[in-house]
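Convert to structure. Protein one:
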Amino acid sequence: SSKAVMEGARLAIEQSATAADTGSVYTAETKGFGGKVVVTITMDGSTITDVKAEGAAETPGIGSQAIEMIPAKILEAQNTEVEVVSGATISSKAVMEAARLALEQANDVN
C-alpha cells in the first residue's frame, strides 16, 4: 500500500536542515528503481528556490532522465505533484517522494 511505501521511505531518510545565506536546506532519501535517490531542496521562506536530485544507480537514459528532469518540474510547480517522466515512473516517483519528505521537514521547522 502507499502508506507502507511512505513509511518504508520515511525509515530510510537521512535528514539535514541547515541555515545558509541562500535559505534553509532540507535533504531526504528514498529508494528508486536502481537504488538510493536523494533530493535536496532549498527554501526561502515558503518558496522553493532550488531542487537537486541524485540517483547514481538509476538506469542511464531512463531513470537518469527523471533525476535530471523532475527537480525542474518541482521548482516550476512549487510542489511535488508533477508529471512523471515517461518510461521512468518508479524513478520519477522516488524523486517526488524524497522531495515531499524534504518539504515535510521544512514544514516541521516552520
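Protein two, convert as well:
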Amino acid sequence: KIKNLLKKKGIKMSKKLISIVVPNYNERDTLDELYERTTKVMQTLVDKYDYEIVFFDYVSTDGSKQKIEELCNKDKHIKAVFYSKNFVYLRLIAYIAVDSVLHYTITHFI
C-alpha cells in the first residue's frame, strides 16, 4: 500500500542496498577472481538491489592497495578503506564473520 501511495505522489523508492564487506591482507592474487565472481552474482540481482563491495585493507605489502584502487576506478560499486596500522584482532574478527558468510553466499549463487 505504501509503495502505491508513494508511486501516485511521484516518489520513487530506491532499491535496497547490499553491502559486501571484504577484509584484505596480502590477497592481491585473489582480488580479481573475487571481484569477477561477486560482480557476476550481483548483476543477476541488480533489478531488485543496489550493491557495494567494500574492501578493508589492513596495510597489505603485496600491492593489494594498488589493485583495490584500480577496481575502485573501474567500478562505481567498489569502495575501499585503507588502514594505516594493522589491527590483527580486528582483522581476525572480520575474517571469521565475513569470510564464512561471503564464501557461503558466493558459492550458493554461482
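The radius of gyration is 17 Å. The chain has a mean pLDDT of 79.
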